[in-house]
Specification:
Elements: E1 2-7, H1 10-20, E2 27-32, E3 42-43, H2 51-60, E4 65-68, H3 71-75, H4 78-84, E5 88-90, H5 98-101, H6 103-113, E6 120-123, H7 126-136, E7 140-144, E8 153-156, H8 159-171, E9 182-186, E10 191-200, E11 204-206, E12 211-212, E13 215-217, E14 221-224, E15 229-232, H9 239-259, E16 265-275, E17 278-285, H10 292-299, H11 304-313, E18 327-335, H12 351-354, E19 360-364, E20 367-370, E21 373-376, E22 380-388, H13 391-402, E23 410-411
Parallel strand pairs: 1-2, 1-4, 2-3, 4-5
Antiparallel strand pairs: 6-9, 7-8, 7-9, 10-11, 10-16, 12-15, 13-14, 15-18, 16-17, 18-22, 18-23, 19-22, 20-21
Length: 421
C-alpha cells in the first residue's frame, strides 16, 4: 500500500516511523512532514490544511490510505472530502470531530449520557461567567470552547485568575473564534491519565495507558502547553479501571454518536482525572495525543496499519494489539520562549550521539534543514523517547540522550517520569 500521513509534528513522526515498519506499506509519504520525518518517509510540500493540494497529491501519487494526524484538518472535514473523492482515510468525520472541536458539545453529551465529568456551565457572556465564578470560588477551570492548540485551558487558583481567563477569551479575543464561547467547570483533584481507544463507529479497542505533562515547568508549574513529556504505561490504570473507562465513557460515547447520526471512526482520546470518587472525563480529543503517541508507538508490538484499516472499515472486532512490557518515556525539548514566542532557527547538533542507544528514538516535532544544518522550526522541537525495564530506567536513558544534544536555545522539564498529579 501507498500511505500518506498528514501533519508535521512529533505525533506524525511517530506514526510515520511505525507505519513505515509495516510489511503492508510499500511507500510512506508525509505532508508536509519535517526534517526527522524525512528519515522515515518521503516528505511532500503540501500543508496539512491544504485540502485541495492533498487531494491532488493523493490522486497523482495513487495513495491507497491517508492517516490524518492533527485535529484542525479533522475538524475542518478533511476525512469527509477524501472519502467523497474515493480515497480511504483514517480519522473521524467533521461531525464526529465535534467531540474535540467544542468542549461544550462534549460536556453536553456527557450530561445526557451520564458520563462522569466535572460540573460545568457554558458561557458566551463575560458578566454571566464572572458571576458564576464568584458564586463558586476558586480553584476553578476556564476553557475556550474551540481548538486552541492546547493553550486554551486555565486552571485558576484564584477568582482573579479565573476572571482574567474569561476576559482573555470573551473580551480580548485571545483565541479568536475558538474562544467566542467558554466552559467554566469544577476543579477536579487526583492523578491525570490519558486513555486511548480505536473506535469503528460501533466497536472499540482500548490501547495502552499513558500520562502526559501539560505544564511548562518542573513541578507541574507554569502555563499549559501542548505537552512537555509523557510516559506509558501508568500504574494507576489497572485492568479493572480500564474496563470501567470503556464501559462508562468510551462505549456510551460511541453509542450516542452513532445514535445521533455522527458515528465516530478513529482514535478517541479521553483525558481523565482519577479522583477519589473514580475516573472522571476532563476532555475528549479525536486524534492521537502528542507526545503520548510517541510513547505508545515505542511500546506497540503489533503492526499498527492493519488496526487503522480495520477501524476505518468497521471490522475492529477482528483486531488485537499486543504491547511490550517495558516502560516508554518521552522528554520534549522546546525552543526558548515557548509557548508564547519560541526562538526559531537555532542549530541543533549531537542527535546521532543522543540516539546511539538502540532503546532511544528521537522524534522530531519542529525541525527543518537549512543548508544541510538541522535547525529549530517550532515551539516543541524534539521528543527524546526511551524504553526501559521500568520508569526509572526509561527516564535515565531519555535524560542521558537529552544531555548529549547540543542546542543552546532548547530547554526541557527535568522531572518527566517522577510522581505526577
Amino acid at each position: 500500500m501507498r500511505i500518506l500521513i498528514v501533519g508535521s509534528g512529533g505525533r506524525e513522526h511517530a506514526l510515520s516511523w511505525a507505519i513505515a515498519g509495516s510489511p503492508l506499506a510499500d511507500q510512506v509519504f508525509c505532508a508536509p512532514g519535517n526534517a526527522g520525518i524525512a528519515e522515515d518517509a518521503e516528505c511532500v510540500a503540501v500543508a496539512a490544511d491544504d485540502t485541495l493540494g492533498l487531494i491532488q497529491f493523493c490522486k497523482k501519487a495513487a495513495i491507497d490510505f491517508v492517516v490524518v494526524g492533527p485535529e484542525a484538518p479533522l475538524v475542518a472535514g478533511l476525512v469527509d472530502v477524501l472519502e467523497a473523492e474515493g480515497i480511504a482515510a483514517f480519522g473521524p468525520s467533521a461531525a464526529a470531530a465535534a467531540l474535540e472541536a467544542s468542549k461544550g458539545f462534549m460536556k453536553d453529551l456527557c450530561a445526557r449520557e451520564g458520563i462522569p465529568t466535572a460540573a460545568y456551565r457554558r458561557f458566551s457572556d463575560a458578566a454571566a461567567a464572572r458571576a458564576y465564578i464568584a458564586a463558586h470560588g476558586a480553584p476553578i477551570v476556564v476553557k475556550a470552547d474551540g481548538l486552541a492548540a492546547g493553550k486554551g485551558v486555565v486552571v485558576a487558583a484564584t477568582v482573579a485568575e479565573a476572571e482574567a481567563a474569561v476576559a482573555a477569551a470573551l473580551s480580548d479575543g485571545r483565541f479568536g473564534q475558538a474562544g467566542a464561547a467558554i466552559v467554566v467547570e469544577e476543579y477536579l483533584q487526583g492523578e491525570e491519565a490519558s486513555f486511548f481507544a480505536l473506535v469503528d463507529g460501533e466497536n472499540a479497542l482500548p490501547l495502552a495507558s499513558a500520562q502526559d505533562y501539560k505544564r511548562l515547568l518542573d513541578g507541574d508549574t507554569g502555563p499549559n502547553t501542548g505537552g512537555m513529556g509523557a510516559s506509558s504505561p501508568i500504574a494507576a490504570m489497572t485492568e479493572a479501571l480500564a474496563g470501567e473507562v470503556m464501559e462508562r465513557m468510551i462505549l456510551p460515547t460511541a453509542r450516542a454518536m452513532a445514535r445521533d447520526g455522527r458515528p465516530f471512526r478513529g482514535i478517541l482520546y479521553a483525558g481523565l482525572m482519577l479522583t477519589a470518587e473514580g475516573p472522571k472525563l476532563l476532555e475528549y480529543n479525536v486524534r492521537f495525543g502528542d507526545p503520548e503517541c510517541q510513547v505508545l508507538m515505542m511500546r506497540l508490538k503489533s503492526d499498527l496499519l492493519p488496526a487503522l484499516l480495520a477501524c476505518r472499515d468497521g471490522i475492529l472486532r477482528e483486531v488485537d494489539l499486543r504491547w511490550y512490557d517495558e516502560t516508554a518515556l518521552c522528554v520534549v525539548m522546546a525552543a526558548r520562549g515557548y509557548p508564547d514566542a519560541p526562538v526559531r532557527g537555532g542549530d541543533i547538533n549531537g542527535l546521532d550521539a543522543a540516539a546511539s542507544d538502540p532503546d532511544v528514538k528521537i522524534f522530531h516535532a519542529g525541525t527543518k534543514r537549512n543548508d544541510g544544518r538541522l535547525v529549530a522550526d517550532g515551539g516543541r522541537v524534539l521528543g527524546i523517547t526511551a524504553l526501559g525495564r521500568g520508569r526509572d530506567e526509561a527516564r535515565a536513558r531519555a535524560y542521558r540522550a537529552v544531555d548529549r544534544i547540543d542546542w543552546p536555545d532548547g530547554f526541557c522539564r527535568r522531572d518527566i517520569g517522577l510522581s505526577h498529579v
